[in-house]
Amino acid sequence: MTRNNDLKPANDDDVFEVGAPLRTGRLDQILGFHLRMANVAIYQDYTAAMGDLGLTQKQFAVLELIAANPKVSQIDIANQLSMDRATMMALVNRLESRNLLERQPSPVDRRRQELLLTAGGIEILKQARSIQEQHELRFTSRFSPEELKIFIDGLKRIYIDVLPGSAQPD
Questions:
Q1: SS3 per-residue string spanning the chain
Q2: pLDDT digits (tens, 9 = 90+) for 39-64
Q3: How do residues 13-46 score in pLDDT, each as one tens digit?
Q4: How many angstroms separate the CA atoms of 93 and 113, rounded?
Q5: Closest by alpha carbon to 129, among 73, 81, 79, 67?
Q6: What count of other Cβ atoms lies within 10 Å of the Cβ of residue 5?
């Protein structure tokens, strides 16, 4: 809640200088602001690193989930990644058009689409994993192993049991 004296008129000492870094004000105490800024840094580095492969973070995540769960359904992946069905279908269409995965109807339920990596998908995932490991190191190396574990555990406390498909495995 904002109090009247929190937003006082600017005086000459408070005027922004062109080219100077912005003061962040109360943003500095907002977790979401820092998560957003960290996400921007990671996203920009990832995009530059994966440029030659043309693989987005979501596409990489889908390939990883299929590799770990052959014949997984599009719906299960969409739930795990908190994506709507239309976005998931467009993403799978893109990966399928690049011959990185294939869809097949489930023998148990014909309405269900199972996903499998193609040989091309396996190959690009191998390349992407190598690039992703270097990308990850650029950020994880800033922490000791103990700090990193605490940090990741803390992040999980934000989303586990809040986002669909993110419940802690038994």
A1: CCCHHHCCCCCHHHCCCCCCCCCCHHHHHCHHHHHHHHHHHHHHHHHHHCCCCCCCHHHHHHHHHHHHCCCEEHHHHHHHCCCCHHHHHHHHHHHHHCCCEEEEECCCCCCCEEEEECHHHHHHHHHHHHHHHHHHHHHHCCCCHHHHHHHHHHHHHHHCCCCCCCCCCC
A2: 999 999 999 999 999 999 999 999 99
A3: 667 788 888 888 899 999 999 999 999 999 999 9
A4: 12
A5: 67
A6: 6
Cα separation, 113 vs 2, in Å, equals 51
Q: Output the six-digit token pair for 16.
A: 């922004």
The structural domains of the chain, ordered by start, are 31-159 (1.10.10.10)
HSE-up (13 A, CA, CB side) for residue 160? 10
d(CA 135, CA 97): 26
